[in-house]
Give the backbone structure.
Amino acid sequence: MKERTIIETIKALFKRPFTIKYPYEPSPAPEGFRGKPEVDPEKCIGCGACARVCSAEGITIEDKGAERTISYFYGKCTFCARCEEVCPAEAVKLSREFELSDYDKSAFYVKVTVPLLTCRICGAPFVPKPQLEMGLEKVADLLKKYNIDIEKFRQIVEVCPNCRRKIENIEAGRKILMVMMK
């Protein structure tokens, strides 16, 4: 038995190694590997769906003035891919990158800034502009189908919830909804 083991060991020395020489040679990630989330700031609409589903609280939202900042902190990320699943704009994609260690802390943070739409009446910021534009694009065909003027609809939705309660604008919105629901 010992003799056979020694012979196999000597043969193995001259064959190719069984393991790769990581970290000196890159190791490919397996298929389906969930690595670092990559965020495309051009696609992000600022809806915050990713922050709402992040169980590790690695994604935060902060509204300051007329801007919304969404911050991604990879140090807390569990690579669950929930942010990728819920993003309506497909702005978040998980890469196959797994070597995330770095001495620079700023390498663990990604910030995306999105402008907020201000209310037509009071001027308070209340919804991300790209999110509203995406929503209007999605309902444009439906509005045309029911002969509803898209500009009139835009005026209704560009009023914050507080002002909407105070004016008759909500009645116009209800009428539009009633026409669409028939």
